[in-house]
Amino acid sequence: MKTEPQAQAGGLPLTLRIVQIVSFTFLAYLVIGLQLAVLPPFVHDDLGYGAVLAGLVISTQYVATLLSRGFAGRTADTAGPKRTALIGLLACGACGLLLAAAALLHAWPALSLAVMLVARLALGMGESCVATGCIMWGIGIVGNEHTARVISWNGVATYGALAVGAPLGVLLARGGGFVIIGLASVLLMVTALVLAWRRPAVHVEAGERLPMRHVFGRVAPYGTGLALGAVGFGVIATFITLYYASRGWAGAAPTLSVFGICFVGVRLLLGWTIAAFGGYRVALVSLLVECAGLWVLAVADHVAVAMLGAALCGIGFSLVFPSLGVVAVERVSASNRGAALAAYSVFIDVALGLTGPLGGWIASGGRYGPMFVVAAALALASALLTGGLYISYGKSRG
Predict the structure, then answer these.
(1) Rounded to 5 degrees, what are φ and ψ at 16?
(2) What is the pLDDT confidence band of residue 88, given thresholds at 50, 70 and 90?
(3) SS3 label, residue 318
C-alpha cells in the first residue's frame, strides 16, 4: 500500500484525515455496543433460554472475529483496505437485518435463536474487516510514519463507541423493543457505507504475499507480549464488580469509568510518544505502569487505593496495543502489513477469551487478590519480553 500523501486529502489536518476514516470504526462498534446490554436479556427473558445459551450467543461474535482475522488482513493487502472496510460494514448491516428478523420471530424461540446466531457470526466477521480495513486505510491516507496515531485513534473510536452504545441500546430497547436495535444498526451501517464510498481509496502495494503462517510467526513475539499485557485489562473488565462485592465496597462502576477515562485520555494525549521514542520503549514503560497498577489492586485495602490501581492500569495498558503493533507490522514488507496487523490482533482476541475462565478459576475461592497478582506477573513478563525484543531488534530504530 503506497503511503505518499494523497491528493484527495485537500490539505486537511492530519488528525482530521485520520478521524474521517476511523469514524467508520466508531459506527461499526456502535452497532456492537447497542447489543451489549440488551441481547442477553432478550435471549433469557423473551426467548426463555438459560444463561448458557445467552453466553453462547455473545461468544459467537468473538469466535467469528477470531476466525475471520486472516481473511480481513489478506483482503486488505490484496483487494485494498477500503474494500475490506466496506465488506465489514455490509456484514454489520446484515447483522442488523438479521437481529430485526430474530426479534420478529420471537414467537418461535428456536428459529429466532438460530437467526440470531447467524447475525452474531456476521457481526464478528464485520468487526474484523472494519477494524483491520480502517487501520490500514488510515495508514494509507496519512503514511506509515503515522501508524501509531492511526492505531491509537482507531482504539479511541472503538472504546468510545462501546461506551456510548451500551446505554443507548438500553434506551432504544425500552422505547421500541429489541427490533429497534436491529433497525438502528441497519440505519447506522447504511449511513457508514454512503460516507465510506465517498472517501478515497489507497493503492494496493505490489509485492510477494507471504503465507499467513509465516506472517503469524514474525509477529508472534509481539502478539505474545500483547496477550500477556491484555490479561490485566481482561480481569478488570470482567471481575472488578465481583472483587468490590467480595470486599464489601461500593463504587465498581466509577472505578471502571476511571479506568476508561485514563485509557482514552492517554491515547489522545500521549499517542505521539510512540513516534517520538519508539514502540519498544513506550511499550516497556506502559507495561511496567500496568504491572504497578495491578499490584496496587491486589493489595488494596480501601476503595480509593483500588481506584488508583485501576487508573494506573488504564494509563499503562492504553498504549500497549499501538506501541507493540507498530513494531510488529515493521517485521514484514508493506505488501503483507494488513495480514500482520490481523495476525497480531488475534493474540488479544485469544487473551481476552481465556481471561474469563482462567481468572474465575484462580478466584474460585472468592479471593480476587491472587488473580490480580497473576495478572501483574504476566504484565511484568510481557515487559521482560519486550525488553528482550528491543535488545534483539529494536536498538537501531528505537
Answers:
(1) -65, -40
(2) very high
(3) coil
pTM of the model: 0.84
The one-letter code for the residue type at 222 is: Y
Handedness of CA 205, 208, 214, 219 (dihedral sign): negative
Cα angle value 139/140/141 (rounded, 5°): 90
Contact 127, 61 (CB under 8 A): yes
Cβ atoms 142, 150 nearer than 8 A: yes
Amino acid identity, residue 41? P
Confidence band, pLDDT 50/70/90 cuts, at residue 362: confident
Cα–Cα distance between 283 and 297 in angstroms, integer? 21
Question: What pLDDT sits at residue 398?
Answer: 45
What CA–CA distances, in Å, run from 189 to 18, 28, 46, 175, 316? 19, 7, 26, 21, 33
Cell of 154: 482507531
Q: Where are the beta strands (DSSP E) in the chain?
A: none
Chain segment 43-82, per-residue pLDDT in tens: 888 888 886 777 778 778 888 988 998 899 989 988 999 9
Look up residue 207 and give its DSSP letter. Answer: S
Report how far residue 278's alpha carbon sits from residue 296's, in angstroms, rounded to the nearest whole number.
28
Least confident of 121-130, 204-213, 369-378: 204-213
Domains annotated for the chain, with CATH where assigned, are: 10-198 (1.20.1250.20), 212-390 (1.20.1250.20)
Give the span between the Cα atoms of 158 and 153, in whole angstroms.
9
pLDDT score, position 396? 53
For residue 111, is it left (φ>0), alpha (ψ between -120 and 50) or beta?
Answer: alpha
Confidence at 395, pLDDT banded by 50, 70, 90: low
| C-alpha span between 252 and 246 (Å, rounded) | 11
CA-to-CA distance for 126 and 121, rounded, in angstroms? 9
